[in-house]
Amino acid sequence: MKYQQLARDIIQHVGGKENVNSVVHCITRLRFKLKDESKANTEALNKMDGVVTVRKSGGQYQVVIGNHVADVYKAVVAEGGFEAKGEVDQDEEKGSLLNRFIDMISGIFTPILAVLVASGVLKGFNALFVAVGLLDEQGGTYQILNAIGDGLFYFLPVILGYTAMKKFGGTPFLGMVIAMALVYPDLEGIPGASEPLYTLFAGTMFESPVYIEFLGIPVILMTYSMSVIPIIIATFFAAKLETTFAKVVPNVLKMFLVPLLTMLIIIPLTFIIIGPIATWASQLLGAASVGIYDLSPIIAGIFIGGLWLVFVMFGLHWGLVPVALNNFATLGQDPILALIFAHSFALAGALMAVIIRTKNQKTKTLTPPAIVSAIFGVTEPGMYGVALPLKWPFIYTVISSAVGGAILGVFGTIGYNMAGLGVFQIPSFIHPEEGLNLSFVASIIAMIVAAVLAFVLTYFFGGIGKQEAEEESANEETSNNSETEVKSEEITSPLTGEMRKLEEIDDTAFASGALGKGIAIEPTDGKLVSPVSGTISALFPTKHAIGITSDNGAEILIHVGLDTVQLDGKYFETSLQQGERVEKGQELLTFDIEGIQKAGFQITTPVVVTNHDQYQLKIIEQSSVTSESTVIELTSK
C-alpha cells in the first residue's frame, strides 16, 4: 500500500492505536478522537513528510494531509484496525456531553443520509399529491409510493441497528437482528388483538397494560418502529456485551455462541427495561404538557414547540399523540399539537442559511431536498443529516420553534382536525364557523417568524462556513505564520540533474500541489545544496527532506526521493541542525543514489515553495540543471 509507512508513522505519533478512540477524515485532514492528547507527538507530526500541519479543535486531534487524505485514511484504518476497534466509549472525554452526543448521533446517521433525504422528499411529495387530489389514499399508486417513502422510516431501527453497532465497535448484523426483534409485527400487533393480562400502576399516570410476560416478568409493549434512541441504547450495551463474551467463550464455539448469548440478554432487557422507561417518559410528558397548557398556553408553546424535535429524537412525542387524539374525540379540537406547528419551518429556515453559508459540497447537495422534506413536515433528513451534526443550526431551530410556539400560545391557535405536519397542518387551523380568524392568522405569523428567526440566527451566528474555510486554507496555515516580510526571490537548483514538471511525478501529495508549487529533479549527483540563503526551518529525522526559509521570506521544501521516509535515514548524511543558517550553494546533505535505487525507491526530488500563495511564481523551464541554474522566480504580490 502506497501510504502504509506514512500511516504507521501517524499512528505511532498520535500515541499508538491503543490511544485512538476513533478516526474519520474530511476533505484535507484526519480527525482523531484520542484518549489522551498528551501522548501525541505534535512536533514530530508537524515535521513528518506527508503531514502539512496539526491542529487541535473541538475535541479532535486533526492531522492535515491534503488532497490525498482519503488514501491516507484507508491506510491508517488498515494499519490500526480502527474500523473494528475504534469504538466510542466512556473513555472519550473530549468535548462537552452535548458535543459527544451530537458526534455519536451524526456518526450513526451519516451513512444513511442520502437515502434518508430521498425517502423524506418522496414522503412529502406523496402527501402533497393526496392534498391536491392527484392521488387517492386508498389507491395502489399512493400505497406503493408510500411504502417506498415511508419504508425506511418505519424500519429505521433496523438500519440504525447496523450503523450504531458499527459505531460502537460491535458486529453490525447483530445490531440489525436486535432491531428486527423490536419491530417484529406479531409483537407490535399484540395490544390491538388481545386483552391485557393485568394492568400495572392502575389509576396513576403510569398505568400500563401488560399483555405478555418473559419468564414471569411483565413486558410493557411499545411501538419501536420509527424510533431512534431505544435501538441506540440497546446496541451500545450489546457491543459491550459482545466484546465481553468474545473474550471468554472458547474459539470453537465463538462463531454462534457469542451472538446467541448477546441476543438472549440484550433483546429481553430492551423489552423489559427500555420499553417501560420510554413508555412512562412519554406518558409523563403528555401529562406535563397538559398541565403546562392549563397553567399558561404561552409557556406550553415554548416548551412543546421548542422541544418537539428533541421529543422526536428520544421517541417521547408518542406521549402527546394520545392526548391529542383524546382531545379530538371528546372536544372536537386540540391545542397541544397545534403548538408544534412552527418547528418544521424553523428547521427549513435554518437549513436555508446553511446552504448560503456552507462551502462543503456534500452539505450543499443534501440540504435543498432536506428543506423540501421539512416544509412537508418530514424533519428527520434535515435534523439528523444537517442541523444536528452542525450543532448550532439545530440549537437555533429549537429556539425559533419555541418563539413560534409562544406566538401560537398567545393567540390560542387550535387544531380542529387531525392533520399532517408542515404545510399540511395549515388547513387544520381553519375554524369550522369563523373561517380564517385571528388564531389562523397567528399560525401563519408563527410560521414566518420561526423561519426568519432561525435563518437569521444560523446565518449570522451559526459558524457555518468557518470549518470549511479552515479546510481550504489548511495548506496556508503554516506558511502564513512566518513573520518574515516576503520579497522577490530567485531560487536556484539544489541539485545537478534533469528537471521535470512537478505534476508528472509519481507522488499524489506533491503532484497535486497540496504541499506547495515548484519543480522536480532527477539528480545525477548525490549532493544537495541550498537554493537560497536563509535558515533551516525543518530537518526531518530521516534526513531525506529539509525545509529552508530564505532571507526574503520564501519557504522551500526539498524532498529527496519518493517515499524515502521508509529508509529511516539510511543512505543520507548531514551535519546540519534545524535552526542553522545556510548560504546559497552551501552543501546541506549527501545521499547515495545507487543505494536508494537498489532499495526500490525513486530518487525524483520535489522542490516546492510552500508559501507560494504570497508570490507570483514562474518556473524557468529547462532540461538539465546545475546548482547555478535559476529554476524558480518569485515576485511578491
TrEMBL record:
Domain PTS EIIC type-1: 103-477
Entry keyword annotation includes Kinase: yes
Subcellular location: Cell membrane
Keyword Metal-binding: no
GO process terms (BP): phosphoenolpyruvate-dependent sugar phosphotransferase system; trehalose transport
Topology in the lipid bilayer: Multi-pass membrane protein
Annotated keywords: Cell membrane, Kinase, Membrane, Phosphotransferase system, Sugar transport, Transferase, Transmembrane, Transmembrane helix, Transport
Record region (Disordered): 470-493
Active site positions, chain numbering: 26
Domain PTS EIIA type-1: 507-611
Segments forming domain PTS EIIB type-1: 4-86
A single GO molecular function term of this UniProt record: protein-N(PI)-phosphohistidine-sugar phosphotransferase activity
A GO CC term assigned to this protein in UniProt: plasma membrane
Domain of life: Bacteria
Pfam families listed in its UniProt record: PTS_EIIA_1 (PF00358), PTS_EIIB (PF00367), PTS_EIIC (PF02378)
TM helices/strands, residue ranges: 101-122, 142-161, 214-239, 251-278, 298-324, 336-356, 368-387, 394-416, 436-461
Protein name, entry field: PTS beta-glucoside transporter subunit IIABC
Lineage: Bacteria, Bacillati, Bacillota, Bacilli, Bacillales
